[in-house]
Specification:
Blueprint lengths: L1 H13 L37 H7 E8 L4 H8 L5 E7 L10 H7 L8 E8 L2 H7 L6 E2 L2 E2 L1 E4 L14 E5 L7 H8 L5 E8 L6 E9 L2 H8 L6 E2 L2 E2 L1 E4 L46 H34 L1
Antiparallel strand pairs: 1-3, 1-6, 2-3, 4-5, 7-9, 7-12, 8-9, 10-11
């Protein structure tokens, strides 16, 4: 055993370490590097919500605009009063209802009965919008423009019924300018408004005319029965504000039907001639019968108990 161990020890001394050559990277060899592209961070843009009162004060409503008018033409018309921030066209009715209004405006495919549209012009300052109201009644492409403040801007300014008239029995295809030509002889007109259907822009046969003064409205009322628009004789009346409907506080449910035979507690009112005192209610016959039977049972029981007691007493005495 000792000889074998010494032989292994001597062989281990003879073992030499062999150095392995390491391959050095040459200068010509290119090292491929992965290019990591930086991810684009999604920036959430917060919408700036503006105060509606400020927006309404800077915006002007323009009615009776020719249907062929563009946003650039309106911007050029109102730029004389200041810098126009935006122009929005409204009440466009496309020829094909399945297509959008934007496509209909680009292709100029409008409803055949529609001849005018409305617009909203916004300025950068409130004073510029107030100055633009002076274009009210301006003749633009054979159309009298109706320029006014937007709804809800001035709560104090209300429609003056003394200076306005109501017109009825108008042709359905009548325009604001047709009515304007008829009543411009009576005096200076502030605006003409015909009520139209929102879906087809066809007139509903009535409208309103607002004059600058009350005397002009009085002259227009004298034309009642002697004035025509198109082929129809129109009806002229004073404009009256309709009263607001009063909401009833009573419940909408129908009152409960009362039976004539029996009176309820709420509906009962005793009279002097009635045989019932005030506050008493006539009982139903079924209830009366049931109570009478109960009383009779009690009487029978009381009589039985009394008789038995008497018999017991008599027996005691006999004993």
């Amino acid at each position: 055993m000792t000889s074998n161990l010494s032989a292994l020890f001597n062989n281990a001394k003879k073992v030499t370490l062999v150095s392995v050559p390491i391959k050095e990277e040459s200068e010509n060899e290119t090292v491929e590097e992965e290019i990591i592209k930086p991810e684009k961070k999604k920036i959430k843009r917060e919408h700036e919500y503006e105060d509606l009162s400020i927006v309404n004060a800077q915006t002007v409503f323009v009615g009776n605009v020719p249907i062929g008018c563009t946003q650039k033409e309106l911007k050029k018309l109102f730029s004389q009063f200041g810098t126009v921030k935006s122009v929005r066209l409204r009440n466009l009715i496309p020829l094909n209802p399945k297509r959008g209004k934007r496509l209909a405006f680009i292709k100029k495919e409008f409803h055949p009965l529609q001849k005018t549209i409305n617009a909203f012009v916004r300025f950068t300052d409130e004073t510029e919008a107030k100055d633009a109201i002076s274009l009210n009644g301006h003749l633009y492409k054979e159309h009298h423009l109706r320029v006014d403040v937007t709804h809800g801007q001035h709560e104090d300014t209300k429609h003056d019924n003394k200076r306005s008239i109501f017109i009825g029995n108008l042709p359905f295809d009548a325009n604001d300018d047709d009515v304007w030509k008829v009543f411009e002889e009576c005096g200076e007109i502030e605006n003409v408004r015909l009520v139209r259907d929102s879906a087809t822009s066809v007139g509903k046969g009535f409208g309103y005319v607002l004059f600058r003064d009350e005397a002009s409205a009085g002259l227009a009322l004298r034309l009642n029965g002697n004035c025509k628009v198109g082929n129809r004789q129109i009806r002229i009346k004073t404009a009256v504000k309709k009263p607001k409907p009063i909401k009833s506080t009573m419940s909408s449910t129908k009152p409960r039907r009362q039976n004539k035979k029996f009176k309820s507690k709420k509906s009962f009112h005793s009279d002097v001639n009635d045989g019932v005192k005030q506050g008493r209610i006539e009982k139903r016959p079924a209830v009366q019968l049931r109570k009478e039977k109960q009383k009779q049972k009690k009487k029978n029981l009381s009589t039985k108990t009394n008789n038995t007691r008497k018999d017991v007493i008599h027996l005691k005495k006999k004993n």
